[in-house]
Specification:
18% helix; 33 strands; 30% strand; 8 helices; eight-stranded parallel barrel; binds (2S,3S,4S,5R)-3,4,5-trihydroxy-6-oxo-oxane-2-carboxylic acid; Immunoglobulin-like; Jelly Rolls; alpha/beta; TIM Barrel
Length: 609
C-alpha cells in the first residue's frame, strides 16, 4: 500500500476498521502500553549480578507428587530449617549461582541442552522513599516467568523477548527483600515460538532486571515523531500515570528552540506543532534531545525524525527511494556464544553489518534487546523488528493469538519512538492455510492499530516455480495484508546448485515492494575447495555471486537481507564434523572470522545505489 497518497485505500481501510471496532481501539492500544517508556532515563536500582538458583527439571518446587500446586512447600517461600530436625529439601543459598543477565545454557556445562525450570533468587536491600513508586522491570526472561516478592506471587509473564513490569510499591519493604523467579523455557505447542525452531532455546533471565523509581504521578509513556504526510509537523502524545485533573505537561526540543506547554486530559496530552528538524537518514542519523515534563516528573530521550512509506514497488525514506542493503542477525554474542549481555556486543555485530556496507538489519526472529535497536539507530542502520511467530504455530488456538498479539504490541510499545525501526514483521515462514491467513491478518491489523506510521511485513517462503524454466511467483494471500513482502529463498542451497540461480526470474502478484529477507547457504570457515564442494567457503561464495546476479533481474526488489551475519547455535544442526550444533550460514564464523561470501556481498553493497 502506498501509505501517503492512497486516500481511497485509506477510506476503505477506515471503514473496515470502523466496522470491526478497530478505529476506536487504535489510540487505546497505542496509549495503553503495559510497560513504561524509556527506562534508560529512569533512576533505578539494578538487580543484575549473581543470583542463587535451583535446577528443578520436574518442577518439584511448584507441584507436589500428585501434581497439585504447592503452597507451604513451594520453593518460592525460601524456607530455612529452624531446628535441627526440620526437613527442607531445598536451599537456595548453598546451591548453584547464575549471572543475570545471561542464559543458563552457556554458564554451566550441565545446562548446555537444558530446557525446563530453574528457580532464581536474589536478596537485596531497599530504601523506601515517600512519594515514590517502584516498578520491578524485567527486560526479558525466556520463556515463562512466575515472580514472587517476599513470599507473595506478584505476577507472571509468557514470552521470552519482550519486557514486563509490576508495580511493587506495596510489596517492597524497607531493608532486606527477597525476589524469587521461576523460569521455565520448555517449548510448548501453543507457545510463541512453538515447538520447532532453528535457534538455541537459551533459557534464563537473559536480560537485565531493575527496580525503577518513579514519582507517584509519572510519565509512563509517550510517542513522538513527524507526521508521515508532513515532516514539518511533529506530533504525538504524552501519558501520565495516576494523573491529576488537568495535569500540566510540556515537551521541549532545545536544539530546535521549541517548547510546547500542554494540559493532559484524563492523563493524556496530544500535541502537534510545526518544526523543521533535520531528517534522520542512514548517512546522517541525526537525533535530537527531547525533554518531557509533567508537574512531578521529567524524562529525556534522543529522537530521530523521518518518514517511511511505499509507492508501488518502492520503499521511500523521507520521500526518496531507498534500497535496503541488509543482513539478518540473531541475538547471539560475537566471539563466543550465548545471548547478548552487553551493549559492546551489540556494537560489534552492528559494526560488522556496517563494514559489510549495510544500511539495514533484519533482527531475527524475535524482539532483540532495546540497546541493540538504539545502537542501530545511532549508527544509521534501518531495522526490521520481528516477533517469534515462526514456522508451525498453533494458528487455531485463541490463546496463541493472544500471546502473539501481546508480544507484538509490547515490542511496538517499547520501540515506537525509534526512527531506525521501519518495519514490524508479524511472522516467518508460516504455512499458507486459512487459519494462518486469519491469524496473521489479525496481527497485521493489531500492528497497524498500535502504530499506523510504520510498514508491516512478514517473511514468506510460499513462492512457487510455475514449471521448468518458468518464473517463481509471489502469490501468498498474506501479500494482501502486509505493506512490504519478505521472501526467504535459498537458491543454490536447498534443492539446487548455485549456478542456475543467476537465470531465475520472478513475478509478483502485488504492487508492493519485495525484500529478499533471507538467502545464502552454509560454509565452515577455513574449509576450502572447489565451488561445487558443499560446506566450503567457495561454495557459499558461489551462492552469493549467483543470487546477486538474480537480484539484478528482479525489478520489484527493494532490499535484501542475507542469512546470516554470524554462525549461530542451533540444536537442529547436528552434523558433528561441520556444524557441531551451529547453523553455518553465517558470513562470519562464531569466532569473528570473515568468510569469502562476506567480501562478495560487501562488494555488491558498496557498489549498489
Ligand atoms: C529459514 C529460517 C531460518 C533458518 C534458515 C536456515 O528459512 O527462517 O530461521 O535458520 O532458514 O538456515 O535454514
Amino acid at each position: 500500500m502506498h501509505i501517503k497518497n492512497s486516500s481511497i485505500l485509506k477510506v476503505i481501510f477506515a471503514v473496515h476498521l470502523l466496522c470491526t471496532g478497530w478505529l476506536f481501539a487504535q489510540n487505546d492500544v497505542a496509549q495503553n502500553s503495559r510497560i513504561i517508556q524509556n527506562i534508560e532515563s529512569r533512576e533505578k536500582q539494578t538487580l543484575d549480578g549473581l543470583w542463587q538458583t535451583i535446577i528443578d527439571p520436574l518442577e518439584n518446587g511448584y507441584y507436589n507428587h500428585q501434581y497439585g500446586l504447592r503452597t507451604k512447600k513451594g520453593f518460592f517461600n525460601n524456607k530455612k530449617p529452624k531446628k535441627p530436625s526440620d526437613l527442607i529439601e531445598y536451599d537456595f543459598d548453598s546451591d548453584y549461582q547464575l549471572t543475570v543477565p545471561g542464559d543458563w545454557n552457556t554458564q554451566m556445562e550441565k545446562l548446555y541442552y537444558y530446557e525446563g525450570t530453574i528457580w532464581y533468587k536474589r536478596s537485596f536491600n531497599f530504601k523506601k522513599q515517600s512519594g515514590q513508586k517502584e516498578l520491578l522491570y524485567f527486560e526479558a526472561v525466556n520463556y515463562h516467568a512466575i515472580v514472587y516478592l517476599n513470599g507473595e506471587k506478584i505476577g507472571e509473564h509468557k514470552g521470552g523477548f519482550t519486557p514486563f513490569q509490576f508495580d511493587v510499591t506495596e510489596q517492597l519493604k524497607e531493608g532486606e527483600n527477597v525476589l524469587i523467579v521461576k523460569v521455565d523455557n520448555q517449548r510448548k505447542k501453543e507457545g510463541i515460538p512453538t515447538l520447532n525452531m532453528d535457534w538455541w532455546n537459551y533459557g534464563g533471565i537473559t536480560r537485565s532486571v531493575h527496580i525503577l523509581k518513579v514519582p507517584e504521578q509519572y510519565i509512563s509513556d509517550y510517542s513522538i515523531q513527524v507526521n508521515i504526510d508532513n515532516p514539518k509537523l511533529i506530533e504525538g502524545w504524552i501519558k501520565v500515570e495516576n494523573y491529576k485533573a488537568n495535569e500540566k505537561v510540556s515537551i521541549a526540543i532545545p536544539e530546535l528552540k521549541k517548547e510546547v506547554k500542554l494540559t493532559a486530559k484524563n492523563g493524556i496530552a496530544e500535541f502537534s506543532f510545526k518544526a523543521s528538524p533535520k531528517l534522520w537518514t542512514p548517512d546522517n542519523p541525526k537525533l535530537y534531545t527531547i525533554q518531557i515534563s509533567s508537574e512531578t516528573d521529567k524524562v529525556e530521550d534522543r529522537i530521530g525524525f523521518r518518514t517511511i512509506e511505499t509507492q508501488g514497488h518502492k520503499i521511500l525514506l523521507n520521500g526518496e527511494e531507498i534500497f535496503l542493503k541488509g543482513v539478518c542477525i540473531h541475538e547471539e554474542a560475537p566471539y563466543g556464544l550465548g545471548r547478548i549481555t552487553s551493549n559492546e556486543q551489540n556494537q560489534i555485530l552492528l559494526g560488522w553489518a556496517k563494514e559489510l556496507g549495510s544500511n539495514f538489519v533484519r533482527l531475527a526472529h524475535y524482539t532483540h534487546n532495546e540497546a541493540m535497536i538504539k545502537e542501530a539507530e545511532k549508527m544509521g542502520i534501518l531495522v526490521w523488528a520481528e516477533v517469534p511467530v515462526y514456522w508451525s504455530v498453533d494458528f487455531e488456538n485463541p490463546e496463541t493469538l493472544q500471546n502473539a498479539t501481546t508480544q507484538l504490541e509490547d515490542m511496538i510499545a517499547r520501540d515506537k519512538n525509534r526512527a531506525g525501526v521501519i518495519l514490524w514483521s508479524v511472522a516467518n515462514e508460516t504455512k499458507e492455510i486459512d487459519t494462518r491467513n486469519q491469524f496473521l491478518k489479525t496481527l497485521t491489523e493489531k500492528a497497524r492499530a498500535a502504530d499506523p506510521t510504520r510498514l508491516i511485513t512478514a517473511a514468506l517462503n510460499s513462492q512457487k516455480k510455475k514449471g521448468k524454466g518458468q518464473p517463481v511467483g509471489i502469490e501468498d494471500k498474506l501479500g494482501e495484508y502486509v505493506d512490504v513482502i519478505g521472501i526467504n529463498n535459498y537458491c543454490g542451497w536447498y534443492g539446487s546448485d548455485p549456478k542456475p540461480c543467476r537465470d531465475v526470474k520472478w513475478t509478483n502478484s502485488y504492487n508492493k515492494p519485495v525484500i529478499m529477507s533471507e538467502f545464502g547457504g552454509g560454509a565452515l570457515q577455513g574449509m576450502h575447495g572447489e565451488p561445487n564442494e558443499i560446506w566450503t567457503e567457495e561454495y557459499q561464495e558461489a551462492i552469493y555471486e549467483n543470487n546477486i546476479l538474480m537480484f539484478e533481474n528482479i525489478e520489484f526488489l527493494s532490499g535484501t537481507a542475507a542469512w546470516i551475519l554470524k554462525d549461530f547455535r542451533s540444536p537442529r544442526r547436528t552434523l558433528r564434523r561441520i556444524q557441531n550444533d551451529h547453523n553455518r550460514k553465517g558470513i562470519i564464523s562464531e569466532h569473528g572470522n570473515k568468510k569469502l561470501a562476506f567480501y562478495t556481498l560487501q562488494e555488491y553493497y558498496r557498489s549498489k545505489k
